[in-house]
Amino acid sequence: MKKRMMGIILSAALAATTLAVPAAVHAEAEGGAEEAYQVGFIVGSREHVFYNLIESAIKEKCEELGIEALCYDGELDANIQSNHIENLVAMKVDAIALATVDAAGVGPAIKAADAAGIPVFTFDSGCDTVDCIVSHVGTDNVKGGELGAEVVQDLLGEEGGKVGFIGNPASAACLDRENGFLTTMEKVDNIEVEFNGNYQGDANVAASLVQDWLTADPELDAIFCAGDPAASGALASIKSAGASTLIIGYDGNPEAIDAIYAKDGDGKWWVSEISQNPPLIGSTIVEQIHKYLTEGKVDAEQIPIDPYIIDYDYIVEEGLK
């Protein structure tokens, strides 16, 4: 994998952040072998390829490090995630890690886990409503939103035009993407952000939003989507309407690469992508949990992973297809 796809930017110049040694650090079992750790992981939704890629990396790294991984589907529902956390607390697992789908909604369950002495980590989407998260690993989503704005400007050029944004404000990660995008676009004089919609993590909702937008303005030039499911929904409605609206997605899932590569097909609309690195997110969160349980410290409280731009030329140059 290319170096720029694997780069992690650690805060404080890679200085280790030392925390109190967790009570969960296990004593050596009889015979000198270390007792296995049991850790609960809650992904955002197994309906999303992105989270499946993270989960696969989590399981692979846990097997490598001798951790028993208990993986659950959050189903894009804070109540379901909270129930999973409560069950994991009752099981007295050594740590919990989750991708929050609603930071406010899941916050009380996270606090309860922390009060029970179970360290909580987040990945992909954090939780800013509590102050007990040991470490967060995820894409630098503000930068990702800024990159999305740069791509829009490059695509529309000096002529400019009108764009829409599809986000999901319940997700901290998507909200960061939105803030990065809109803050950058505010500085641009020749491009107007005409529509801003919440797709709730559902491609069908995104399709409905875009259908309504194109009815109101068939000349919409581009749409920046805060997730690939939104881009898939947008693509369906754009094709159905016979519009020429361009799509910039976010995630870097295989479906996006396939679409962009098909220049005479879906690539006529889905032209670019802000890509994350889900395998690296999954493996890194496991590494941080293992380091905390064995050493009582993590590398940093925030471990951002750089996003990057994928377009047709990048796919060809990197041999992705």
Strand order of the largest sheet: 3-2-4-5-6-13
Rg calculated over all Cα atoms: 21 Å
Strand content: 15-25%
Query: What sequence of helices (H) and strands (E) makes up the elements?
Result: HEEHEHEHEEHEHEHEHEHEHEEEH
Q: Estimate the global geometry from the Cα principal axes.
A: elongated
Find the count of extended strands (DSSP E, 2+ residues).
14
CATH architecture of the largest domain: 3-Layer(aba) Sandwich
CATH topology-level name of the largest domain: Rossmann fold
Biggest beta sheet summary = 6 strands, parallel
Count up the helices. 11
Cα-to-Cα separation, first versus last residue: 14 Å
CATH class of the largest domain: Alpha Beta
How many domains make up the 3D coordinates?
Answer: 2
Give the low-pLDDT segments: 1-33
Mean pLDDT: 90
Class from secondary-structure proportions: alpha/beta
* CATH fourth-tier homologous superfamily of the largest domain: Response regulator
Helix content: 40-55%
Give a summary of the structure in a few sentences.
With 321 residues, this protein is an alpha/beta fold.
